[in-house]
Design goal:
Chain B: InterPro entries: Na/Glc_symporter_sf, Na/solute_symporter, Na/solute_symporter_CS. The structure holds two protein chains of two kinds. Chain A is mainly alpha-helical. Chain A is built from three helices and two strands, in the order E-H-H-H-E. A two-stranded antiparallel sheet of chain A has the order 1-2. The longest helix of chain A has 22 residues. Classes of the chains: A mainly alpha, B mainly alpha.
Amino acid sequence: MADGKRRFQISSAFDIRTIIGALMGIYGVILTLLGIFNATDEELAKADGFNVNLVNGLILLGVSIAFILWAFLRPLVVEEVPPEAFDDHKAGPE
Amino acid sequence: MDTTVLLAADDTFRLDTNFSDYLIIAIYFVFVLGIGVIAKRQVSSSIDFFLSGRSLPAWVTGLAFISANLGAVEIMGMSANGAQYGMPTMHYFWIGAVPAMLFLGIVMMPFYYGSKVRSVPEFMRMRFGTGAHLVNALSFAIAQLLIAGVNLYLLATIVNVILGWPLWVSLIAAAVVVLTYTTLGGLSAAIYNEVLQFFVIVAALLPLTLVALHKVGGIDGLTDKITDSPGGAEQLSSWPGTNLTGIEDPFWSVVGIVFGLGFVLSFGYWTTNFVEVQRAMASKSMSAARSAPIIGTFPKMFIPFIVVVPGMICAVLIPEMIDLKAGDDSSGVQYNDAILLLMRDLLPNGMLGLAIAGLIASFMAGMAANISAFNTVFSIDLWQQYVKKDRPDGYYTQVGRYATIGATVIAIFTAIIASGYSNLMDYLQTLFGFFNAPLFATFILGMFWKRMTSTAGWVGLVSGTGAAVTVALLSEDAFGSASLGVIPLSGQGASFVAASAAFVVDIAVSIVVSLMTQPKPATQLRGFVYSLTPKDQLRDPLAHLLPWYQRPTVLASISLVLVIALNIIFW
């Protein structure tokens, strides 16, 4: 990679941070709703009253927002290295 | 096939799933396959397919590095060890992983990344020629197929439990999903999925642990109950871990853990295992490649709190597990079932689905990692090197895709073999002992001793592996009923000793053979031996521009201090 020909550009490629944020966000919404509307006494008794759906749902929403903010504030930058840089891999470094 | 596990599973683990659980699991699969499809658009050369175009940031490769290892063996095996032995299990993380990962990042990664090899066996070939390379590439490829089989088997067991599909249908269905995304997107798809999987696993296991801790009466409740349980207070301190090693003398137990697990097994596994190293090699720069395993140490040292601790809680909370530990195995439950039992008894619908998704994620991560490492070694190190040289680049990407399909089919069959072993950890430790312990000896000697010859490379590997097999055969149970019982060692202790024997024999044989044969000319060893490599090649030219939190040595120091602190706190 030390070829000195680094170029930078904003990538249109997908960013794993938004994907993580999206999945955690969807899970957060589902769990929070379940925790609010679907927490029967029987279910709560399983965990001695700990409403785990609600708590984890809210945490996941927080995680989701953090990832999406991170991706938004520090957008993906791709280093483009010309394909020739890899042509020598068979010959080794000599 | 060992059907007892499955029958127990059918009867015992009827998880009370409903629509919300299935919804959560289904959404996860949409994301997994979606990543495969998107990653496919980025694959335009074999480097893209096998090494993600060497373009990924360190936090991504670092998490993938950990996630690739966070498979079925780790989750089920380590929670099982937690239930059975307690805190000594922490050694697998704090002694058996973190120091070796730091060593990989600081000392070895510059050689791997700087020499631009595409796989660990390829490094072996450049340093020692084809003899050692063939031994390494073949043994690695075969080991991956076996371990992929273990991961697949557990994955299928979960599907079998939740959906009630027959095991063979579950096996094929699970295999097809992994196959789809690894074939489409190559290593990128595998790595991006591993990062996603990491978060799903944590989102599932952390709340499970907290709920279990709440139920058992907090940390005080847990320590009280464990002190009163079979096994006693010994399970609350990590040293000397005599119950884990099976070595009665505390001094030799510590030696076994530090040298056998902490040095030989762990360095052999973490520094030469291409499954993990491949993730770091996909990084975008030398500094990022070195940082990958180092960043990975941070989650690695805290993962046991959501894997081992739930196992420990299960052993004092869930009736079937309490019975098992007291010696009554009539319920058919095994230690490996610890996490499943907690899920069954503690989680409401919704969280239950997320926990199932987390387990599926973990097993798929493990299997995809094995398969993507296998297809690289098969295509580059076996097919390109020994069968069809000098074809256009696209040809090898195609070979990689076919290798993925072949590996998945074989993994289905090895899954059936793996199911015959009750204690998965023993079985895999034994394998690692055979393949990895002598590898580390050969690598480290070869990197720092220019006199070491090509012949010494492969002779050392073969005799080291032979030594491990011999010890395992002579032990009481390392090979199950095939072991002869001549040496009074069993369980994890036998694995530690077998690995240590492999290391010592490899070093001794390599030195003797080197002194009797001709070394390679110095010009061919540039980039592969420390004293013959220009220092610039082992450094990142832009390293001085990085902020402190992206510098490998700074991160490694922080990690080291933390892991020492953990060892002291949980002494």
